[in-house]
């Protein structure tokens, strides 16, 4: 085994290097757990052969080595797995990303079971890589980055759609068009979604990911203090055959924070150009991301006051597309409440619902889509009908 081994180790016939029970329960494996684990190993391993197929190559010496590796995996796959051959999980009603990945594992395992010989098994592996992608990026939609630089898949990603956001038609259309162009490999802009809290900015970004995941869009959430690692991250991503959106939620900087300089360089202005398969989507309550004070504008202590102000304003200008999400007025808020009530199947008296929604808004921060969503949830809980 050369290509499909982690750190030069071995895959034993019983997959003793995996916690079989935890794996089976995480993905609700019904049947042969070892077969499911081997299928998962093949699906997620990043090696010279699998990566070459991601780039639509898949020929050369690496393929010859891979055939030997995959043949060994095939023998382990069809071996007698004894007590783990007929597993029944405790929980079968998975949700979120675990459910979607579980279905991928189940489908691929069944396809491998149909293979009658070494060649058909090998061709099935190649077919999976070409159809679904390679490694963690192949099966996961979204990731968050640890301070070590490691990317961790998001297991419980909200299944948001653009239909979840009532109104804001032009804003959603702009974001969809930009993301669609990016997915097609065409020119697209970094995007700043700004406006009042609770207006649907973050939901719009998640909806864009879900809408275009099948087209190769992947998302990585980056925290402000991690911007120092942006250049290292983009260097890794540029070699992959996916389109990556670096997502920065609720982005803003106090006047004493300097992390924005790393972000400016990553967007535009560094020595190395940003990879064409990487975009930045950020949400913020501020149009200008860096806090300014009146004393700065007066420039009492700064000889080059205008230059200092322009340096801070220029960060927002580096987002080619800025999309404003205004706070809804009272009438819009009531429309959102009625829309959500109908969508969730509530039976209600319109006048009473609006009266209660008005009281809720007064106590919970005013009119917004988020406040409307929270009100409907509490309305159902409290049985106010």
At a glance:
The chain is α/β, with parallel strands linked by helices. It has 16 helices and seven strands. It has a seven-stranded mixed sheet with strand order 2-1-4-5-6-3-7, covered by helices on one side.
Describe this structure in words.
This protein has 385 residues and is an alpha/beta fold. The chain folds into three domains: 6-139, no CATH class; 153-325, 3-Layer(aba) Sandwich (Rossmann fold), CATH 3.40.50; 330-382. 48% of the residues lie in helices and 9% in strands. It has helices at 20-26, 33-44, 48-54, 61-77, 96-113, 118-132, 135-139, 169-183, 201-212, 230-237, 260-267, 294-298, 305-317, 330-343, 350-363, 369-382; strands at 142-145, 151-153, 191-195, 217-221, 243-248, 278-284, 321-325. The protein has a seven-stranded mixed sheet, with helices on one face. Helix 10 links the parallel strand 4 (217-221) and strand 5 (243-248). Helix 1 (20-26) packs across helix 2 and helix 8 (169-183) packs parallel to helix 9. 32% of the residues are buried.
């Amino acid at each position: 085994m050369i290509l499909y081994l982690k750190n030069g180790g071995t895959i034993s016939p019983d997959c003793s290097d995996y916690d079989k029970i935890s794996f089976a329960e995480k993905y609700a494996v019904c049947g042969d757990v070892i077969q499911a684990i081997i299928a998962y190993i093949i699906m997620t391993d990043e090696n010279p052969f699998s990566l070459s197929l991601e780039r639509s190559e898949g020929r050369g010496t690496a393929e010859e080595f891979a055939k030997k590796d995959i043949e060994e995996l095939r023998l382990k796959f069809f071996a007698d797995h004894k007590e783990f051959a007929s597993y029944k999980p405790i929980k079968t009603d998975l949700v979120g990303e675990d459910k979607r990945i579980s279905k991928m594992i189940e489908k691929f395992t069944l396809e491998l079971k149909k293979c009658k010989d070494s060649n058909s098994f090998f061709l099935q592996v190649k077919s999976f890589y070409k159809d679904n992608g390679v490694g963690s990026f192949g099966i996961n939609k979204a990731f968050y980055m640890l301070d070590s630089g490691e990317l961790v898949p998001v297991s419980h990603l909200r299944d948001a759609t653009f239909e979840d956001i009532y109104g804001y038609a032009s804003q959603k259309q702009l974001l969809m068009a930009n993301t669609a162009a990016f997915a097609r490999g065409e020119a697209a802009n970094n995007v700043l979604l700004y406006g009042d809290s609770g207006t649907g900015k973050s939901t719009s970004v998640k909806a864009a990911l879900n809408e275009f995941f099948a087209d190769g869009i992947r998302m990585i959430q980056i925290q402000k203090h991690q911007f120092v690692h942006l250049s290292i991250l983009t260097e890794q991503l540029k070699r992959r055959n996916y389109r990556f959106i670096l997502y920065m939620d609720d982005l803003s900087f106090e006047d004493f924070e300097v992390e924005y300089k790393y972000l400016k360089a990553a967007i535009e202005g560094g020595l190395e150009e940003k990879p064409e398969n990487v975009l930045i989507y950020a949400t913020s309550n501020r149009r200008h991301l860096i806090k300014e004070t009146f004393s700065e504008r007066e420039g009492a202590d700064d000889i080059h006051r205008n230059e200092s102000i322009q340096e801070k304003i220029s960060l927002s200008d580096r987002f080619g597309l800025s999309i404003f999400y205004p706070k809804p007025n009272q009438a819009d808020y009531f429309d959102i409440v009625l829309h959500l009530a109908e969508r969730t199947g509530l039976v209600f008296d319109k006048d009473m619902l609006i009266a209660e929604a008005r009281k809720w808004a007064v106590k919970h921060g005013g009119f917004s889509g988020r406040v409307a969503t929270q009100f409907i949830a509490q309305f159902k809980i409290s049985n106010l009908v």
